[in-house]
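Review form for a predicted model. The reviewer records the input and the model, then writes brief findings.
Reviewer: anonymous (R2)
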Amino acid sequence: MHEMLRVHDLHGYYGESHVLHGVEFTVDHGEVVTLIGRNGVGKTSTLKAIMGLLDRQEGSIRVQGAELIGRRPDRIAHQGIGYVPDDRGIFASLSVEENLLLPPEVKPGGLTTEEVYALFPRLRERRGSQGTKLSGGEQQMLAIARILRTGARLLLLDEPTEGLAPVIVQQIGQIIAGLKAKGFTILLVEQNFHFAATLADRHYVMEDGRVVDMIPNDQLEAQADTLARYLGV
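Model under review:
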């Protein structure tokens, strides 16, 4: 498989606070890979650093060989990267369809509106509803759907199941599995490890702002005790 993303010796800062300490990992084309670990270890900061959203980031972040460090966030997005933050970023005063049509195309080959609605039938039903009227699950679907129109092929998803009912979590899992089947590459931050384990190819474990281990999904059972120590469960 060819590399989609390579992060090497990544350091990140909020002001003078040094939060990422030499993060290193790779993601291949078509993989679903998770960043896991306890709260506050740098998982979300790593996604933000990839998008150029920290106050400062140093090291190397390459997407299909192109260096992202030093680029503006809007230019990073034009490398074909879509980011869904944990707050989902839905515009409350806009309808579902207006939210969906808002982001510009960053790469050719994005899904059409009809293709998006076929993937998310609930959004078709709610296409005229304001963002404030959507449930948490509907907002999450809209946040993911919105970046699929842009042509992004590398998706960064931050806690997509947080606060959602189990039936909605299952639907989000089916959507992510469907995107993987379509060839999308997904980097996932997810506290619900049982959910992540049903989707991911590999798991990178983070502690204190760095990656400390990588566990292939097919070795989870054999490394259950190690994983429990990392996650404090």
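Findings: Strands lie at 3-14, 17-28, 32-36, 56-63, 66-67, 81-84, 154-158, 185-189, 202-207, 210-216.
Further findings: The first helix runs from residue 43 to 50.
Recommendation: see findings above.
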